[in-house]
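Per your request, structure below.
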């Protein structure tokens, strides 16, 4: 999902109230401020954002859909904590699916589709230039989903969306080189191959891109400084 607007109607609350909780938590998780495994109490989050537990619950459900949070019966919500095995399996699955998707997109893309991808790259570049690494990770995932949508295969799109949601947290937690998230050259090359309607090149570039992503991860535990949710989320709201 990775889009705060998608569930506003389901939450039954004004979008700005629902999305503030969603975006604050998402940015904290992807920006390394909120550690994996952290408990996310509804009452504490409601007090931080001055919203009801119903609004908080809607945001947590959306984050769980994005694979950033796990919901445990009778225990509450916790930041997801993907391990090494899950990380490798996710990227192995992406390496099987996404080269085919990129090839299909190259054979199916219109001029408008290519322009849409180029506009998206501009957003990625701005986020990276501004040091908004969490936002850049989200935009990168959306780029891959956009390619799947251009391919015109509903099932593949659903698979890519799910895998990219899982990848976003994995990349944010485990990247050891900043170019793991700064993939402007790889994405630009993919767009150029799609624009040239070259399925072979698009598939090869996607395969290389995913291999580079995995090689840029340090699949080991990281320590995160212990701060309260109020301290972390207050900083993101200023």
């Amino acid at each position: 999902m990775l889009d705060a607007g998608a569930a506003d109607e389901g939450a039954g609350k004004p979008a700005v109230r629902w999305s503030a909780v969603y975006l604050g938590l998402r940015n904290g998780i992807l920006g390394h401020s909120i550690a994996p495994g952290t408990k996310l109490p509804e009452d504490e989050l409601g007090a931080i954002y001055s919203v009801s537990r119903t609004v908080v619950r809607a945001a947590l459900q959306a984050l769980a859909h994005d694979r950033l949070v796990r919901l445990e019966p009778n225990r509450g919500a916790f930041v997801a904590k993907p391990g090494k095995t899950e990380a490798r399996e996710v990227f192995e699955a992406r390496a099987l699916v996404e080269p085919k998707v990129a090839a299909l997109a190259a054979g199916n893309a219109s001029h408008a589709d290519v322009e849409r991808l180029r506009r998206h790259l501009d957003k990625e570049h701005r986020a990276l230039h501004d040091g908004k690494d969490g936002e850049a990770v989200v935009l990168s995932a959306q780029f891959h989903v956009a390619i799947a949508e251009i391919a015109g295969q509903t099932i593949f799109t659903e698979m890519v969306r799910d895998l990219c949601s899982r990848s976003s947290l994995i990349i944010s937690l485990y990247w050891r080189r900043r170019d793991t998230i700064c993939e402007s050259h790889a994405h630009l090359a993919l767009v150029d191959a799609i624009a040239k309607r070259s399925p072979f090149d698009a598939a090869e570039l996607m395969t290389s891109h995913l291999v580079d992503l995995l090689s840029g991860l340090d699949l080991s535990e990281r320590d995160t400084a212990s701060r309260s949710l109020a301290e972390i989320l207050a900083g993101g709201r200023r």
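The two ends are 25 Å apart (CA to CA).

Regards,
D.
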